[in-house]
Amino acid sequence: MQEEESYLQVTLQLQPTVDKDKNDYPLPKDRSLTFSQYPQTGLEVKRRVQDKFHIPLCLQTIYFNSFVLEDNQELRNIHFREGDTLTVSYTTHGDLSTVQDIINAITTVSGQLESIKESILEGSLTQEEYDQVLDYNFVDHINESFVRTTPDIVKVHHLYFIHNFGADVFLKIKRLLAGIPWEKLPFKLQCLEHAALKYFWSLSSTIGVRCYLFNFPDLVELIASSILRIKAIPNEKLSIANMHYAYLDGYYFVVRSAITIMYSGIGTMANLAELIEFREEIASMPNLLDQMTSIMLCPQFGIVNTHLGLSTLFALSFSPSCHHKIASPLIIERIMEASSHKRLASKGTVTEHNSTMINYFISVYLALVSPMLSRKEEFHSLLLQVISHMQQFLQKTNYEAIHQAEVKTGHEWSTIKPILCLVYRTIDEYNDIPLLPELYRTSLQVGLISLQEITLASDFKEIVENEGLHDYLMCLPWYMRDDELREEAEVLYRLVQAKIKTSCPPTLVNLIKGYLATNAGFTLQELMSPSFIETLEQRLTYN
């Protein structure tokens, strides 16, 4: 007889910290939470509250009697019982009425767009139909609600917008617009596409709620369609011929609109690439990376487009399974040309921070894909140029300057495992390419300066603890192959020790794993996986 599954149900008492009359926060009538298994931590309870009541994690304080449930608080000794009451104190200082107005407006626009789509495609859209489409007020409201406000309020607005199907409506609009060729898309509808992109750019930037993007399976394809709207050709201006509705708009505005839409698409794609679940799809999207690297060399696009495009490649390079899709001789030649002083100067005002981040993204990307570059003959003619680019970057900067540039440009780290795997790498001793040792060594230097820089991040300790990487960082000086690299690893050792303030030595198991990663052909991913022993036995049996 199958054992009956047990459940725990608790009741929530919800207490807003502001006047309810001023900020009406719509909540489900059912104030209970049901757990199929006993919750492990306070964070697990908060996530359930966020999912059901749309209250962001960062705005919740949960009490059990007088006891505050901290995020990392283990709940096994608290002994919740069926029917217990938890008090959730939260802030509702968002402007939800405006967000609801946006949802209402785009729902209306979606219906209008469906009714005139055939006229647009046939080229028979009348002035009257054109004038009736779009109430531009909601475009300004998008900026106010999702861009020009504090991060906590943005999270509130996103959760309300998503749970009330606003994001679904915007995606429906984006699908309709994606089915209309650019030359047949009137300017007002180009502005509508831009509004949708601005929303998804904001959502993809918002840590804590952007996980909801996984609910939209065709999102990457739709964002890519905006980037691919008009083919970019290196060193040439965008050309748009045969605009059907030029008499309604004006050519100049149509070109500027295309540039703005492609820019917003690239910004959104750069954020999506940070999420491992999207990387394979982005890397596999036909013509996307060719277009993005062409845009870097297109005179009408500014330095921010170059920065965002390289940020996308940088994030994609964190997944080894993407390397064969994101690296080609043409892409490498283009990004190194895009980073040249002459090319950057042609983009207008270039700050030291912009230049540092652009060359940093390229150097880390090249270092991470370098094993593939050394294996494939088509890249061998570029190896000297690749090594030279990384070495010039290392000579001109230090880890403190990189960190300052990251702070200025708003770049944030969520993982350091790919960079750590970069420095725990075995040189291919069976490869007789003359430049291989120098490529290997320079890649290690890029990895070390990256790790040094990451130690200055405000959440460095949290990242290291979450990913269980402390021992691997502290072991590095033992595995470096020459004095200069060892000195850099010792600098990292001291930085980690100062930030984490621990005197615990690395465990013997992790010391052995580090040795295997740097001397026995294992990857650090293999060694850190739960199936490590099985992998080790298979490798030893094979050898």
UniProtKB/TrEMBL annotation:
Domain Ubiquitin-like: 40-95
Lineage: Eukaryota, Metazoa, Porifera, Demospongiae, Heteroscleromorpha
Gene3D superfamilies recorded: Phosphatidylinositol 3-kinase Catalytic Subunit, Chain A, domain 1
Name of the molecule in the record: Ubiquitin-like domain-containing protein
Cited InterPro entries: Ubiquitin-like_dom, Ubiquitin-like_domsf
Pfam families given in the database record: ubiquitin
CDD domains named among the record's database cross-references: Ubl_ubiquitin_like
Entries under PROSITE patterns matching the protein: UBIQUITIN_2
